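FIELD: query
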Amino acid sequence: MRAGLVAAPLTVLLLVIAVANCTTEFDPSLLQSFRRDAAAAADAANLGGCTDGTRALPGDTPEACGQGGAQCRACPLATPYCAMGRCVVERGVVALSATGTVTAVVDRVGALWTFGSNRTGQLGLGPVSGDRQLPGIRVPGGVRAVNVGGDFDGHGCLIGSDGGLACWGANFNNESGQPTKGPVLSPTRLGDGNDWRSVSLGTAFGCGLRGAGSLSCWGWNGSGRLASTTAEYSPEPVPVGAPIKWKSVSAGIDFACAIGADDAVYCWGSSEEGRLGGAATSPAPSPIASTVPFAAVSAGSAHACAIAMDGSLWCWGRAVEGQLGTSGGASTPTRVSAEGAWASVSAGGQHTCALKSDRTLWCWGAGTVGQLGLDTVTGAPLPTRVGERNDWSLVAAGTKHTCGATDDGALYCWGDNREGEAGYATGEAEKRVPTRIALTP
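FIELD: result
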């Protein structure tokens, strides 16, 4: 459901790997020794820094990583390579999604990682379990994109490097695309063809975009989620809005929004609290009440936000917790007043987070468990900058937690962790500031 949607290509900082920066020869045995020391790795991850294999050292400091990055073995994500005086993240994040009690990540080698609750098989790791799970590899490679949806009964879908779509998790409403209802314990093929371009999951349903611009949805049709009147449930993808060609789609809790080839935002499903943005209540997708051309849209639990072609940000729907970033509620798109252009946005449960074109991170809305990353449990009715970093590349707002990635691929999460959805193992129920999460194979 909540993946960071990029409105315009961000200029990625290239880390030129320069082994010459290392002044000591890399010893593979040190890497193996480090990886055996899981406790030190966990401590280092919680500190957001490095470890020398026996103790945690906060930050990418000369003490931790060596002058010029000489001791690259000291990083939590151990690697023999240095760049710009720092250790290069080996398992860097390239795709990210968060929902109620689960977070999913795709790393640079195409492996899928999930963490959080597995009570309906939503981690894709086998038998269901109520025990929270730390970050672990579920698919070793060949994954291009991932999205997770739902709340406690969650599900997930991935797109493979071959363009095929596979889903897992809750399937009580056919939301994982299988005709037999019940948990799907591992990624299982959904639909046919190898031309899937993107996927977005809501509560008990999902939608996917194919290469030719066609859009289809599956699962439960309650409140008109599938934009169809043909069936209450469908394990098979049901075409949406033909012959309209689509550019992107985002599924909310019981509604969805998509951008057409005309750059207009269309929404369908539940109209409660204005979540359709003024679109006509109809089984078919209807345009929101705006003539602004849009580049990206993100649907949350009961609100949505979209970035216009000019970089302006517009939100609509439920506003009780301040998630719209405006002075009040809005049943039609209302511009979020803030300086600078926006690059990506992710609408969560009762909060929203977004990146500006200068790579700064901003969040607003409910902050009851630290999901805004502002070191408080107080909400913020207007966009508020998170920390001082200006190297954020991805952000995904879940129901009550948030995760983000920086240019070097490092993963950070904050907010609710009662089900392990924020990925840290300290036993703390929440973190109020971005906290480094180590992806250690």
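FIELD: remark
Confidence is low (pLDDT under 50) at residues 6-60, 73-81.
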